[in-house]
TrEMBL record:
Transmembrane segments: none annotated. Belongs to the PanB family. Catalyzes the reversible reaction in which hydroxymethyl group from 5,10-methylenetetrahydrofolate is transferred onto alpha-ketoisovalerate to form ketopantoate. The active site is at 187 (proton acceptor). It comes from Paenibacillus chitinolyticus. This is 3-methyl-2-oxobutanoate hydroxymethyltransferase. Mg(2+) binds at residues 49, 88, 120.
Amino acid sequence: MAQERKPVTTVKLQKMKASKEPISMVTAYDYLTAKLADEAGVDMILIGDSLGNVIQGHESTLPVTLDEMIYHTKAVTRAVKSAFVVTDLPFMTYHGSLDTTLQNAGRIMREGLSKGVKLEGGAEIAHAVKALTQAGVPVVGHLGLTPQSVHVLGGYRIQGKNSEQARKLMEDAKALEEAGAIAIVLELVTEELAEWITSKLSIPTIGIGAGASCDGQVLVFHDMLGYEPDAPAKKFVKAYAQVGLAIREGIGQYVAEVKGRKFPAEQHGFKGDNEVLQYLYGTAVK
């Protein structure tokens, strides 16, 4: 039996950057998914508001509520023994007063038992990151393609393709670091810019579509395991399994066997004793 891992902490994550040990991160939204990811050795688990897409079927993350994030966080944290669990603060839950931001993050930590929260944005939310950090809440930043701002960005577009964007992203990364963030996710950022930002920060960067120079990588669970077999391929995703095909084929076989009266077979049922048979049919089987 594999030896149980020690819990991953903020100190461990910092040491991993310093020693150039890559950090692995995946999303999870339920108990069994989180359990499997944790047992597989993942370092960080993100309860992402991407659940709006892959669990709820929305076109964006915007409809996801705080209560829904807490619900899924509860399921995940019941399963995890080692990985560092982070939960997204959903759309418009950290852009008002600091009191409201602290209250919302506090609910995720207190009710969901998450170890930290993730916020999208740069210098404009640094004051919130600082307040959360001072209150004892570990914060992961998120720069580049920020799904909660997809309509402002004009769609799902590569970020950092010109000098102005590059300068702004570096300024935002530095602002988050100075505010106390423990790590920063870089999404759909050009490889050169991601490498530059990573080299200038003392905290880890976690890339998704940002090249191999980040301190770690994150993928959405359903993307990396091929849960939606007919979905268009994403260039920055590698599918490590084709779970969707296996599920569809398995259910299809079940339907066929039910329709053909092949399931359940004799070995799937239970026989009554003579007393029950006497009661039901008025006779016992010898």
